[in-house]
Amino acid sequence: MYFKNAEWxxxxxxxxxxxxxxFEYTAVFELNSxxxxxxxxxxxxxxxxxxxxxxxxxGIFDGYEDYQVYDTxxxxxxxxxxINTLYIxxxxxxxxxxxxxxxxxxxxxxxxxxxxxxxxxxxxxxxxRNNHYLxxxxxxxxxxxxxxxxxxxxxxxxxxxxxxxxxxxxLFPRPVKKLINDNKVTGELIAQGIYKEYDExxxxxxxxxxxxxxxxxxxxxxxxxxxxxxxxxRNLNCDGVYLLYSTNGEACGFLNIEIEVDSETEILVGYGxxxxxxxxxxxxxxxxxxxxxxxxxxxxxxxxxxxxxxLKYLQVHIKAKNAVLGDIGIIKTDYPLTDYKINIxxxxxxxxxxxxxxxxxxxxxxxxEDCPWREQALYAMDSRxxxxxxxxxxxxxxxxxxxxxxxxxxxRPDGLLELCPPGIVSVNIPSFSAVYIREVYxxxxxxxxxxxxxxxxDGLKTIVKSFTDRIDETGLIPLLTDGxxxxxxxxxxxxxxxxxxxxxxxxEGKIYDSPINAFVSDALYCLSEICKVIAPDExxxxxxxxxxxxxxxHKNFFDKETGLYLTKTTHSKPLHNLSNALMLFCxxxxxxxxxxxxxxxxxxxxxxxxxxxxxxxxxxxxEDENNLNWVLEKIDDVWxxxxxxxxxxxxxxxxxxxxxxxxxxxCHGWSAVPVYVYGKYLAESPF
Length: 687
What we know:
Elements: E1 9-10, E2 21-31, E3 37-44, E4 46-51, E5 54-58, E6 68-74, E7 82-92, E8 106-113, E9 116-120, E10 126-129, E11 139-141, E12 145-146, E13 149-151, E14 160-161, E15 163-164, E16 171-173, E17 180-186, E18 188-196, H1 204-210, E19 212-215, H2 218-221, E20 222-225, E21 228-232, E22 240-261, E23 265-272, E24 283-284, E25 287-288, E26 290-295, E27 298-318, E28 322-334, H3 347-362, H4 380-393, H5 398-408, H6 430-447, H7 450-468, H8 514-534, H9 539-557, E29 558-559, E30 564-565, H10 577-585, H11 591-603, H12 614-621, H13 628-644, H14 659-662, H15 673-681
Parallel strand pairs: 6-16, 13-26
Antiparallel strand pairs: 1-15, 2-7, 2-10, 3-6, 3-8, 4-5, 4-7, 8-9, 10-14, 11-12, 17-28, 18-19, 18-22, 20-21, 21-28, 22-27, 22-28, 23-26, 23-27, 24-25, 29-30
């Protein structure tokens, strides 16, 4: 209805600037009233909207060419009677990443005053490439896409008529709320001084990371006049001034810079979560967490609304000997949520709950994210933890439904989900698709949304069939090795695919492990339970498959000598706590062995579980609620350790920033596990 007259349009030179390119569109429209004025808008891969010269909103829900999501924005507070000006900025990523896939650039919009359409996108709209953004194509990371370089001094291109984009209309309303993005956060200055360049030929991130820094006492460097800080180091031997800002905890938002300079000035900005190197860790391996802004003489106000940063710190290098500083920080972008605090009398556990909830919030924007800083990617396994914890923390169902729907729309020809929908990456983790079935089942259990089961039912059966078709004469599913599969379960020795495909090499022969079969067994159980609700005649068939798979699991992986379970059939002894917990979780352990296996898990003599997979260990142990004290004390120990380290969000793994060659995330959604345990077992009114 809203886009009957509107067309997908692009700037005329978009064909030559598809990848990592910025465009801008402008028009005027006339209103008789300022009441009930709305714009309906979609774009690839992002947009920023300005009305009458002021920022109104930004941020699309990224989807697919056949699932183009549009926003409905109320413009009433931004418009006036008579003539109004509209400006739309568009960013085209133009490549596959973990967050967005390569699609055709374009925007489409329509503005209504009540029921009257007053403006819509067609080739009469003027557009051009935004040449202030320099073509550079330097990746932040393969997960996030590109950083940017912006020159405020460049003369703008001439506006011309737009052209029709090569896109069909497949438009759907936004399935989640818009982010709240009007809260400006000025960073707290925690260190400052002068710097000298180490090597200007390096990347932006490396220049920040390797520059020579000389600390100066704040009062020595910065003076105040008219309520503004300024500096003047023209008498010092340096290239400029560095400023280190803190957001006072994990934060997400758009970069915001306000500064006044005498001449054209290069400003480098690095961001991150770590100060272990006594500066922001802007350069990590091939990752470049840095941007460049070239200021024009005079006052500069710059906000970059096309990249959401997850960070704790900003490091700013101003290549000028004198400047007047305005606000430097971010415009926060938070998803609107209502917290449901449970009554926890223990102070440590109450703190763990609060930090876990904050971790969840920092990993919820358009969809669930593994982490806000390094990847911002949606994974089925990670999101299972996030969604389940969110039921207790927020009692909210719109957001999980949208993410679950988005994931299923990525179904591949091999019957598995893309690893990071709606993006496309080069590898796939098979077990994550099996976990997706449980996510859907749990969504129904908590929300009661029967309609959603009908929507996804065929897709669920396709995923399960992709696994059960691989069951061979052993009754098991061999590890998937006939494609770019990564047989990952957790960041623990032997469970992160050291025997599998990590760099494109193929495994020789068949290998069997218990985790993938346990995950599929659980998926069969969940699908059987879903069938009982919407297709009762099919429930027994899936339950029968589960029981047969469980028999094969016990037969092939049970080690009689130890009474525990192997991870791989090629192993000579049990190695992993997680493998044994998964056998309990999926029901493959005969009743007479369960108490013993739980006891041995709690002794922790095998390779311990990591943060992401404790949810399976705890569920396996809490089939017997006599183990609740052990579980609570384990949370005290593991998560309490991060609290004592000053965490305001919980880490990817316990070693924190040092993990993954110094790229460890300090905010990871999968680490919010305590919310589920506390909510289910300590709350007065659990679900």
